[in-house]
Design a protein that fits this description.
The protein is built from four helices and seven strands; from the N terminus they run H-E-E-E-H-E-H-H-E-E-E. With 143 residues, it is of the alpha+beta class. Strand 6 (117-123) and strand 7 form a beta hairpin. Helix 3 (80-87) crosses helix 4. The termini are far apart.
Amino acid sequence: MNIARCLETIDRLCSLPFPEEHGWSDVGRGGPGYFVAELGSGTGECGEHTADADDVEAWREAIAQRLDARWGAAPPWGTLTLRVRGGRGEEIPEPWATVGVLADQVHLWQATGTDRWIAVGVSDEDDTDAPRLFAVVTDIDPP
């Protein structure tokens, strides 16, 4: 995984118009008001070796440090309440419903000078899958 490339992807998502319809693109999933992009995983596509969960977490932290320098410190934001509220029948808007399923916590910033939120996390929804580093860029406020 290349940290600079991950940051470039996040920057690109911050400048692209959001899709009008839900679907897939070269950056991942998207829809009105959001993008969800996979930045890398622990399957070997991150570099020359297969990364473990600790490696992917370290990459998330490295990206978070750089984004903290831009937009201020972003302590981890827990997503358990999103799952609980959704389980009770509350409508959780996308992309936040997806974020709640993908990870127990993310780092979350509001990009200075924009109305966009950026979340970076590691998927942990399935122990049988390799951990995946993802970014969300949205103009939908967190619930």
